[in-house]
Specification:
Its cofactor is Zn(2+); Mn(2+); a divalent metal cation; Fe(2+). It catalyses: D-ribulose 5-phosphate = D-xylulose 5-phosphate. GO terms for molecular function: D-ribulose-phosphate 3-epimerase activity; metal ion binding. Its EC number is 5.1.3.1. It is built from nine helices and eight strands. The model has no long low-confidence stretch (mean pLDDT about 95). Helix 1 crosses helix 2, helix 2 (about 50-60) packs parallel to helix 3 (about 80-85) and helix 6 (about 155-165) runs parallel beside helix 7 (about 185-190). By secondary structure, it is α/β, with parallel strands linked by helices. Helix 7 links the parallel strand 7 (about 170-175) and strand 8 (about 195). It is globular and about 45 Å long. The protein starts with 5 loop residues before the first strand and ends with a helix. The chain has an eight-stranded parallel β-sheet with strand order 1-8-7-6-5-4-3-2. The protein binds ribulose-5-phosphate and fe (ii) ion. Ribulose-5-phosphate (5RP) binds near residues 37 and 145.
């Protein structure tokens, strides 16, 4: 069992005029990584930021925080090299956005980044499975991508359970509506990388929320290893 529990706040719901400070605040509160949501207004009906912002963030907060780029964009091939140059660590693209996932996986690796592969709620996990052996992380979306603060879709959990049963050491991330109310279901299903936006960022005590999310996942991982 090679995977470990990690919590990555999504800064989508934070004060975007203070993005660098918000990222630092999340790391100070115990975040393991930062989940940065890139939206192009085409793949999803919302617009955020691109590689120039990532470059500024990297310069401002230093080399250490791990940047997981959630690329909600129509042509993910276009931004691989600019994101690598800007200091991204992991490039998570959507399976629905490309006709050639194999080539894109290769390009991401050649650019020196880790590879994440995301699926929207309407995409089956069987469609992701052929690529699972070539990626570092599978992202199971638990809302329709595009906006923070939506309701967690519990009916996505069978996808996570199936992936965990088939790929025991794969990093599996959940994203959308994840917080203290939904973390138990994510952890029991087998997710180990937890994205949480509004539940962490809008809390008066983000440190406690991050610790709670992480502890639930640690306990589930321990239980799974005892059951084996
Ligand atoms: O990718 C996303 C939306 O498309 C965000 O990462 C996600 O929604 C996180 O925010 P919240 O926890 O508030 O749902
Ligand atoms: Fe995201």
């Amino acid at each position: 069992m090679a995977y470990s529990a990690k919590v990555g706040p999504s800064i989508l719901s934070s004060d975007l005029s203070q993005l660098g400070r918000e990222c630092e605040r999340m790391m100070e509160c115990g975040a393991d990584y930062l989940h940065l949501d890139v939206m192009d207004g085409h793949f999803v009906p919302n617009l955020t930021f691109g590689h120039p912002m990532v470059e500024c963030l990297r310069r401002s907060i230093g080399p250490d925080p791990f940047f997981d780029m959630h690329m909600m964009v129509s042509r993910p091939e276009q931004w691989v090299k600019p994101m690598a140059a800007a200091g991204a660590n992991q490039y998570t693209f959507h399976l629905e956005a490309t006709t050639n996932p194999g080539n894109l996986i290769k390009e991401i690796r050649e650019s020196g980044m880790k590879v994440g592969l995301a699926i929207k709620p309407g995409t089956t996990v069987e469609e992701l499975a052929p690529w699972a052996g070539q990626i570092d992380m599978a992202l199971v979306m638990t809302v329709e991508p595009g906006f923070g603060g939506q309701k967690f879709m519990e009916d996505m959990m069978p996808k996570v359970s199936w992936l965990r049963s088939q790929f025991p050491s794969l990093d599996i991330e959940v994203d959308g509506g994840v917080g203290p109310d939904s973390i138990h279901r994510c952890a029991e299903a087998g997710a180990n990388m937890i994205v949480s936006g509004s539940a962490v960022v809008s809390s008066d005590d983000p440190r406690s929320v991050i610790a709670l999310l992480k502890n639930v996942v640690i306990e589930a991982i321990q239980k799974r290893s005892l059951d084996r």
